[in-house]
Amino acid sequence: MNCNRTITATALSKQSATHILKTLNGKATAIAARPAFILLQSRCSPPERQFSTSRPALMKELFPPPDTPNIKTTEAAWQHPIYSYEQMESIKVAHREARTVSDHVALSIMRTVRFGMDLVTGYKHDKAVANGTKDPKDAKSTSSMTERKWMIRFIFLETVAGVPGMVAGMLRHLHSLRRMKRDNGWIETCLEESYNERMHLLTFLQVAQPGWFMRLVVLGAQGVFFNTFFISYLISPRTAHRFVGYLEEEAVLTYTRVLQDIDAGKLPKFAQMQAPEIAVKYWNMPEGQRTMRDAILYIRADEAKHREVNHTLGNLDQKNDPNPFAAKFEDDSRPHPVKDIKYHKATGWEREEAL
Ligand SMILES: [Fe+2]
Ligand SMILES: [Fe+2]
């Protein structure tokens, strides 16, 4: 019996749903007032359920296998490189100082975007302690970020993060066709980045399901962000890559904080939760290291890689330089840009180091 498919309206009475909601956040009424923002998804595989929703009728298999007679599954287009546990644990928060006018423009725009994201996702990690006296709930906790709030932030963040790589890849692809010139490896890396971000999103969607309000916000944000990034990339691809580099710095910071919160025992549901199957397969997660914390560790390492890639691409000649992350080097023993995180450079490779 596939338990993902068998959670039905009858399986969860209104009474038990209310009970689960109370145990989940300790404030069923607050959730009930915002039922459409996010629904925490019940999952039976792996072992036990971590979250349930107040609307059991909506529960269903999120990504069922194709309903076709001869096709069993579809394969991933890009195999994820192997990360070691030590490499992932060594990822650090970092910031590349703005040096040029283009860098300052990128940083200012990123800070504006970040402000909007914090507002939309109710993120106030740093202010939690200071807010304690004003907000009775915060007063009881050193962090105001619950599992539910983190999920809202992750899902919103990943729906936005998947846009730049696709836009950059698409524009470079069209440029190559139009100008009848080679692209030298940029397109694949950009498209792979957007694919990777979408896998982050699919991982989180196995745990929580956005309601209609959040879907509406995502729709609006995508419409604005796609078009703005599209125009920006046409005007200055260098600034656009720098902007993504700064955005990824924030993503690394976000996931570092959630890992710290898990390790500090503030997010017990994340600590106990098993990683979704889609995550186990995509990252090839080794047995015994398949918790939600482990999945977040992989995601943070991916964000660090995007940070490195985009800061490096922002240092290159946008028209003529090859993409060093897709290149074969003469001397492979000397540290150089690679697809995995063997030679990680948090703030990117300078042009003379990279080529
Ligand atoms: Fe991501
Ligand atoms: Fe990213």
Task: Draw up the topology in text.
Elements: H1 14-25, H2 28-33, E1 38-40, H3 85-89, H4 101-121, H5 128-131, H6 136-139, H7 147-179, H8 186-205, E2 208-210, H9 212-235, H10 237-263, H11 268-272, H12 277-283, H13 292-313, H14 351-354
Antiparallel strand pairs: 1-2
This protein binds fe (ii) ion (FE2) (2 copies).
EC number: 1.-.-.-
Main location: mitochondrion
Binding site for Fe cation 1: 158, 197, 200, 303
Quick structural gist:
Residues 328-355 have a biased composition (Basic and acidic residues). This protein is mainly alpha-helical and 355 residues long. It is built from 14 helices and two strands, in the order ααβααααααβαααααα.
Structure notes:
- This protein has 355 residues and is mainly α.
- Helix content is 55%, strand content 2%.
- The protein has a domain at 85-91 and 98-123 and 141-326: Ferritin, CATH 1.20.1260.
- It is built from 14 helices and 2 strands; from the N terminus they run ααβααααααβαααααα.
- The N and C termini lie far apart (54 Å).
- It binds fe (ii) ion (2 copies).
- Residues 158, 161, 197, 200, 251, 299, 303 line the site of one fe (ii) ion (FE2).
- One of its GO terms (cellular component) is respiratory chain complex.
